[in-house]
Amino acid sequence: MSPEIRGISILGATGSIGSTTLEVVDRFPERLRVAGLAAGRSTERLASLCERYRPDLVALSGEEEAEKFEGAYRCRLPGLEIEGGPSALERVATLPDAGFVMSAIVGAAGLRPTLAALRSGKVVGLANKESLVAAGAVMTRAAATSGARLIPVDSEHAAIHQCLADRYDPVRRIWLTASGGPFRTASSLEIAEATPETALRHPTWRMGPKITIDSATMMNKGLEMIEARWLFNQPPESIRVVVHPQSVVHSMVEFEDGSILAQLGVTHMRTPVQYALTWPERLPTGLAPLPLDQPLDLRFEPPDPDRFPCLRLAAEALAAGGDAPAVLNAANEAAVEAFLDRRLSFPGIPAVVAETLAARSPTEPNDLEGVARADAWARAFARELIADRALAATG
Ligand SMILES: NC(=O)C1=CN([C@@H]2O[C@H](COP(=O)(O)OP(=O)(O)OC[C@H]3O[C@@H](n4cnc5c(N)ncnc54)[C@H](OP(=O)(O)O)[C@@H]3O)[C@@H](O)[C@H]2O)C=CC1
Ligand SMILES: CC(=O)[C@@H](O)[C@H](O)COP(=O)(O)O
Ligand SMILES: [Mn+2]
Predict the structure, then answer these.
(1) Average pLDDT value for the chain
(2) Which of these, 13, 37, 235, 391, is most buried using a 10 Å CB contact count?
C-alpha cells in the first residue's frame, strides 16, 4: 500500500532549516506536498520556491512586503494566494491541508504562528526554539489542549526524543552536547576581540546568522536548556551541558541506574529535519553514514561559564521562570542584531542580557500577550542600553 501524501506548511521557508525541509520534500515527493510557505524578506528566493513547489498559500512578514511580492511575481505565479502580516503567517500555520507545520522562522517572530499551529492540533516540527524559551508554558498548554504534537527538530532535542522513545524510566539527567563554538579554546581576551566574521565561523554546523552567533556565545545551549525543560518536562537542575567539539553525539539521557543512552550521527540537519517529517517512520536520508570503520575521537569536557557567561544567564532565567526566559530571549535578540551590525562588542552581548534581566520587574505571563509585553519591554530596554554603550564608545 502506498503511503498517504502529507500536506506540509513551512514557516521560514527561505532559511537554513526551511531549505533542508525542502530537500526532504524533494526526496519523498510521493509522501510530502507543500501546502503553504511563509518567509520574511527573501522575496526572489520565495518566488522561486513558489514556482517549484506550487503551494496554495504564501505569506510574507508584512502587508507591504506581500503587495510588493504580488506586483513583482504575480505573472509567474498564477492561482497562488499571496498574503502578508501576522494573520497571514497564522493562516499558513493552520491550513486545513497541512497536517504538519515546520516552525523554522528565526526568533520571537515565530511565536504567534507556532502557537496557531499548536492550537489547531497540527504535528509541529519545532526548530524555532524561541517559542519554547519565551512561551514554553503557553505553547505546551496549547498542545495539550488541542492534541497537537511537538516533534523536536533542534538536533540535541531530536536526539533526546530518540533516546527517550516511549520509555517511562525515571530520568536522572539530560546531557545536551555543545560544540563549544568557534571560541571553545580561546582566552577571554581573544573572545573580547571577536568580530561578526570570526563569530560566524562555526566549527561544525552551517546555520543562519542568529543561531550561529548564539553558538559562539553559547547562549544557544542556554536556550536549549530552557527548550528541553518544556519538551521533556524535566526539572531545570537535571538539564546539563557538556562540550563535545565533534558534534557527533547529538545528546544523551542518563537514567536512574547510571546508564546513558546517546544518539550519534553525521553532523547534518537533514537527519533531524527528516526525522520530524517522517516520524514515527525512519527512512534513508541519502547522507554518507558516520564512518565508524575509521578512527574517530570523541571528546567531552565541562563548559566554562566564566568565558561564556550566557550559559549562566540562561540557567538563572530557567530557574527564575515567569517572564525571565522571555526577557533573556528578547534582550539576546536585540544584542545579537546589534553585534552583527557592529553596534555592540561580543562581550556586550552577555552584558546587555545581564543588565536587562537585572532591571526587570518579574511577571508571570499566562498567555502570549503577557509574553509579548515582557518581550517588548526587554527589547526596548536592551536597545537603549546598546545605544548608550555606542554613545559612550564614540563620545
Ligand atoms: N539552522 C540550523 O541548523 C538550526 C536552526 N534552529 C532554529 O531554527 C530557526 C531558524 O533558523 P535558521 O534556519 O538557521 O535561520 P535563517 O536565518 O537561515 O532563516 C530564518 C527564516 O525565518 C524567516 N523570517 C525571519 N523573520 C521573519 C518574519 N518576521 N516573518 C516571517 N519569516 C521570517 C526568514 O525569512 P527571509 O530570509 O525571507 O527574511 C527565513 O526564512 C531558529 O529558531 C534557530 O534557532 C535550530 C537548530 C538548528
Ligand atoms: C544544529 C543544532 O542543533 C544547533 O543548535 C547546534 O547545536 C549549534 O551548535 P552549538 O552546539 O555550537 O550550539
Ligand atoms: Mn541545537
Answers:
(1) 97
(2) 13
Q: How many domains does the chain have?
A: 3
pLDDT for 4-62, tens place per residue?
899 999 999 999 999 999 999 999 999 999 999 999 999 999 999 999 999 999 999 99
CB-ligand 2 contact for 263 (6 Å cutoff):
no
C-alpha cell at 192: 573580547
Together in a domain, 133 and 194: no
Say how far apart CA 38 and CA 82 lie, in whole Å: 10
Q: Helices 43-53 and 16-27 meet at what angle, rounded to 10?
A: 10
What is the pLDDT at residue 1? 64
- Confirm whether 1 is domain-assigned: no
- CB within 5 A of ion ligand 3: which residues? 154-156
pLDDT given for residue 339 in this prediction: 98
Sheet holding 100-103, edge to edge: 81-84, 57-60, 32-39, 6-11, 100-103, 123-126, 149-152
> Are 177 and 57 in a shared domain?
no
Domain that residue 338 falls in: 321-395
Query: Do 377 and 284 reside in the same domain of the chain?
Result: no
Q: Say whether both 140 and 172 belong to one domain.
A: no
Q: What's the gap in Å between 218 CA and the centre of ligand 3?
A: 11
Whether residue 304 is found in the same domain as residue 159: yes
Residues 76 and 160 in one domain: no
Q: How far apart are the CA of 46 and the centre of ligand 1, in A? A: 13
State which of 153, 187, 212 marks the end of a domain: 153
Determine how β-strand 100-103 pairs with β-strand 32-39: unpaired
Ligand 2 atom at minimal distance to the Cα of residue 267: 1
The yes-or-no verdict on residue 382 having pLDDT over 70 is yes
The ipTM, to two decimals, is 0.99
Q: Are 130 and 105 in contact (CB under 8 A)?
A: no
> Other CB atoms closer than 10 Å to residue 44's CB: what's the count?
11
Residue 316 lies in a domain: no
